[in-house]
Specification:
alpha+beta
Length: 66
């Protein structure tokens, strides 16, 4: 099995050209594509290091528990 994992970003979702066409190319080469959803970020997190640390810390601690 060949797998392509797509990591969207804040302000750059999977429907944007770079990720959209990358997924299409992967599909054409018989890759299974998986998009990693990040869930809801706090408002104004883009461009704010302080607000970015909040979801990062939450997800980091969830990773350590599992």
């Amino acid at each position: 099995m060949k797998l392509a994992v797509v990591f969207p970003g804040i302000g750059y979702h999977v429907d944007k050209p770079l990720l959209y066409y990358s997924r299409k190319i992967a599909d054409n080469y018989d890759y299974e594509t998986v998009t990693v959803p990040y869930g809801n970020f706090p408002a104004g997190v883009k461009g704010s290091a302080k607000k970015w640390r909040i979801p990062f810390t939450v997800h980091w601690h969830r990773r350590k528990k599992s």
